């Protein structure tokens, strides 16, 4: 069992180690896969954003290139471009023609706006406040046409943008760089409008390096960032160029708000840079799920499965090993049982042969030639009863000997009521019990010949004792019949004389003598206690008869 427990414990340790290794590998692989998937998705998203920005910048350049001999005072410059700018499908919020006007061109511009049907043809500030135009000594940027035209956008023409805090500097950069320029994030349409960007491209007159005006397109920031994908692995933010500590983030409805930059939500962001309008824009990507937590959960599941499999394997191994051990023990028990059964059969054969030999001798001696058939029949029955009695007693004790007092029973010993028994309660061996049982029967069967001289039946006193100790111990037996004499006692038969004088003493390894006194008949027997008790025979019989217990 100790070895089996050691083996099962070793298997359990190996299973736990392999489960931990598998969990660790699953954790690392899941983490690596999530990181690779997130990185690829971010790269794809950044590429798509860059493509959208390039497309919108290309639209601005194409639109500016379609102008031929632009006139600053015209208020319908975008009408010929309507089909072209809508063909790009760039979902712009507002396209505008912003003319660069000198102070002498203001009256013509007001007339053009009025003729185009715009509700307020006056040249005014970007916030619709009146503006003192007489003091101007440099050109200003005025909205002359918008697309699409509706009730809200029709109010924009006539506004000057050179004083706008965001658009004014944008136009100045566009004039300086002579290419498309993007503004900082601002509210489109009105103060509460969506946050977006405005890209402006200068339009130059033919054979002149002076810009006649600008083509502008306004876009919502959310559409440029592609933030409305609910199934994406990340959320997108834009680093605010006006304040690097702030981030612009769009919700599911496309509304963009500003918030402080975060370093871990739930993991540090990954940044990608895109180019738009000659500027670099930094996009931040936050993972929507914590890859580390997912990897830990997967590792826990793998570890739990591994431990469960280890428990099942250990249980099955223990069950099989236990059954094999139990079967091996049962086989050993069966082999031992068969060996003991063989020994018992051999012992039984030996005892049966001895009993049959004794019975054969009894029958032969009892039914000798010339004997009285009635007397012989009575003696034969009595002797066989004596043998049967001792065999029954031995069977009840599993052939481990019988009590000496048990041999004196009415069914085996005649006139047992006249016998007074004295002696220690010792157990004699099977061989000694057979001899003593016949001996007692012979002595008792010859003590009933009529009445004694005093008119009484003989009185019998049986006494035995053990003298000495150890190997020198002797068993002494004395049979004395009082109130009898040679004249009244029935004469011993030939079989009885042989049994009393030779068979019984030789079987016990001792000596005997019989004689008459003046008032009694005496039979004495002395033998070593070892042959009477015969401990070797009892131990051997006890070993044979002891039941075997599985697992003992």
From TrEMBL:
<dbReference type="Pfam" id="PF03924">
    <property type="entry name" value="CHASE"/>
</dbReference>
<dbReference type="GO" id="GO:0004673">
    <property type="term" value="F:protein histidine kinase activity"/>
</dbReference>
<dbReference type="GO" id="GO:0005524">
    <property type="term" value="F:ATP binding"/>
</dbReference>
<dbReference type="InterPro" id="IPR011102">
    <property type="entry name" value="Sig_transdc_His_kinase_HWE"/>
</dbReference>
<keyword id="KW-0547">Nucleotide-binding</keyword>
<keyword id="KW-0597">Phosphoprotein</keyword>
<dbReference type="Pfam" id="PF07536">
    <property type="entry name" value="HWE_HK"/>
</dbReference>
<feature type="domain" description="CHASE">
    <location>
        <begin position="142"/>
        <end position="232"/>
    </location>
</feature>
<feature type="transmembrane region" description="Helical">
    <location>
        <begin position="6"/>
        <end position="26"/>
    </location>
</feature>
<feature type="transmembrane region" description="Helical">
    <location>
        <begin position="298"/>
        <end position="322"/>
    </location>
</feature>
<dbReference type="InterPro" id="IPR006189">
    <property type="entry name" value="CHASE_dom"/>
</dbReference>
<protein>
    <recommendedName>
        <fullName>histidine kinase</fullName>
        <ecNumber>2.7.13.3</ecNumber>
    </recommendedName>
</protein>
<keyword id="KW-0418">Kinase</keyword>
<keyword id="KW-0808">Transferase</keyword>
<keyword id="KW-1133">Transmembrane helix</keyword>
<keyword id="KW-0472">Membrane</keyword>
<keyword id="KW-0812">Transmembrane</keyword>
<keyword id="KW-0067">ATP-binding</keyword>
């Amino acid at each position: 069992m100790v070895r089996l427990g050691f083996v099962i414990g070793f298997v359990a340790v190996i299973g736990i180690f392999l489960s931990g290794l598998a969990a660790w590998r699953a954790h690392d692989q899941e983490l690596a896969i999530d990181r690779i998937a997130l990185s690829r998705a971010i790269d794809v998203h950044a590429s798509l954003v860059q493509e959208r920005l390039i497309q919108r910048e290309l639209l601005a350049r194409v639109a500016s290139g379609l102008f031929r001999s632009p006139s600053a005072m015209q208020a319908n410059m975008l009408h010929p471009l309507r089909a072209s700018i809508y063909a790009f499908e760039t979902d712009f919020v507002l396209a505008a023609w912003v003319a660069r006007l000198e102070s002498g061109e203001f009256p013509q511009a007001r007339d053009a706006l009025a003729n185009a049907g715009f509700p307020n043809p006056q040249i005014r500030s970007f916030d619709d406040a009146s503006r003192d135009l007489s003091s101007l000594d440099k050109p200003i940027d005025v909205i002359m046409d918008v697309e699409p035209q509706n009730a809200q956008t029709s109010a924009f023409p006539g506004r000057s943008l050179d004083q706008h805090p965001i658009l004014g500097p944008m136009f100045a950069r566009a004039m300086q760089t002579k290419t498309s320029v993007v503004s900082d994030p601002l509210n489109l349409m009105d103060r509460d409008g969506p946050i977006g960007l405005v890209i402006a491209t200068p339009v130059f007159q033919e054979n002149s390096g002076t810009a006649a005006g600008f083509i502008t397109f306004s876009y919502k920031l959310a559409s440029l960032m592609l933030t409305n994908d609910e199934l994406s692995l990340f959320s997108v933010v834009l680093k605010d160029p006006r304040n690097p500590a702030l981030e612009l983030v769009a919700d599911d409805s496309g509304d963009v708000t500003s918030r402080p930059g975060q370093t871990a939500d739930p993991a540090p962001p990954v940044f990608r840079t895109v180019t738009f309008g000659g500027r670099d824009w930094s996009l931040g990507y936050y993972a929507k799920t914590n890859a580390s937590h997912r990897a830990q959960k997967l590792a826990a599941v793998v570890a739990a499965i591994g431990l469960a499999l280890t428990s099942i394997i250990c249980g099955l191994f223990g069950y099989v090993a236990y059954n094999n051990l139990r079967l091996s023990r049962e086989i050993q028990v069966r082999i031992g049982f068969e060996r003991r059964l063989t020994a018992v059969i051999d012992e039984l054969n030996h005892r049966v042969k001895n009993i049959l030999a004794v019975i054969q001798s009894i029958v032969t001696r009892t039914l000798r030639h010339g004997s009285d058939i009635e007397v012989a029949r009575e003696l034969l029955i009595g002797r066989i009863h004596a043998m049967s009695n001792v065999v029954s007693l031995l069977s009840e004790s599993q052939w481990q000997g019988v009590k000496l007092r048990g041999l004196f029973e009415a069914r085996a010993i005649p006139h047992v009521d006249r016998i007074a028994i004295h002696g220690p309660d010792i157990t004699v061996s099977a061989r000694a019990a057979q001899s003593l049982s016949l001996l007692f029967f012979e002595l008792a069967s010859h003590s009933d010949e009529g009445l004694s001289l005093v008119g009484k039946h003989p009185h019998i006193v049986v006494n035995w004792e053990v003298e000495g100790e150890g190997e020198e111990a002797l068993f002494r037996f004395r049979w004395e019949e009082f109130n009898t004499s040679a004249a009244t006692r029935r004469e011993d038969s030939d079989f009885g004389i042989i049994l009393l004088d030779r068979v019984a003493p030789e079987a016990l390894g001792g000596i005997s003598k019989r004689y008459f006194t003046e008032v009694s008949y005496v039979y004495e027997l002395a033998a070593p206690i070892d042959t009477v008790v015969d401990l070797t025979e009892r131990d051997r019989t006890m070993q044979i008869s002891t039941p075997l217990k599985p697992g003992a």
